[in-house]
Fold:
Amino acid sequence: MTIIINMRDGIDERKLRIAARLIREGKLVAFPTETVYGLGADALNESAVRRIFEAKGRPADNPLIVHISSFSQVHELAREVPEEAKMLAREFWPGPLAIVLPKSEIVPKVTTGGLDTVAIRMPANKIALKLIELSGRPIAAPSANISGKPSPTSAEHVAEDFYGKIECIVDGGETKIGVESTVIDLTEWPPVLLRPGGLPLEEIERVIGEVRVHPAVYGKKVDVAKAPGMKYRHYAPNAEVIVVEGSREKVGAKIRELVEEFKSKGLKVGVIGSADYGADEFFFLGRSVEEVARNLFKALRYMDRAGVDIVIAEGVEEKGLGLAVMNRLRKASGYRIVKA
Structure:
C-alpha cells in the first residue's frame, strides 16, 4: 500500500513527519521539488538506495543526486569544497543546481553509481526542504518515474508509475520548473556542464566564469556517467519521437509535411509545440521557454495516454532554458532529428 500525503494547501508538519520517519526506516518516499518529483531514500543507507534502483529499473552505474537542507551538510558529504562551490551555493541555493564534488567516505558508492564523486543539491521547495530537515538525513533522489520514461511533474504522474510499489507519495501539486536540475562538475577545471537543466548555463558563467559543455549534452556517447541523464536514453514516451529543428517558418512547414506523411500511412500522430499542424493529438507547450519547460514532460505523458503512434516535437532556440528543453527532446527521440 502507498500512503499519499496531501500538501497542496501548505505544509502539515505532523503529516510530513510520517514521510520523514519512513525515510529514516529505509523506505521510499516520492516528494515534490521545484524541478520534478523525486523518488527519495536515505542517501547513506545502502539497502535503501538499492531499492531506488530496483523500483525504477535504473542501471547501477547511473549516479543519484543527494538532496540537502543546509549547506553544512556539504562538508559532511564532500571531501573538498572549493570556493566556486561556495559561490554557486550562495547565489543559487536553494535552487535547481546540483554540484559534483569529491565524495567523502560516508557516502556509499551505490549512491554515486560507483564513482568517487557525489552530486549535491539544495532544492527550492519548502516541502522538500522540510522533509530533509525532519528526516535528519541527506536524501538521494532521482526523478520519480520508471527509468527511461518522462519525468513526473505531479503526484498523479508518480502514482501512474509507482502506486502500490513504494511506501509514500507526498503530493505538493505541480512542479514549477518542469525539467530536472542543472548539473555542474567542479572536480575538473574549467568546470563542466554535465546536464543542462532548470538553471541556465549563462547564469552559472556569470558567477564563476567559463564553463565547458560536456559533449554528452549534445548526444555524444559516454562510457562513464558522472551525472544522471548522460549515458542512457531518458524521458521517452511509448511512441516514437521526432524532433524538428530549424527556423520557425521552416519548422512549421516540415512538421505539417511529416504529419500528412504519417497520417497517410494510417498512423495516429501527435504534435507538441506551438500549433497542431493537422495532427490527431496536440499539446500546446507554451509561449515562453519557461512555459515550454514546465509543460514538456506533461505533454509527453499526455501523448502516452492518447495512444499516438508517433510524436513530432517542435524544437526551440538553445538559449537559457532552451538548452535543457532541447537536451530532453533529443534524448526522448533517441536523437531522431529532422532539420527543416
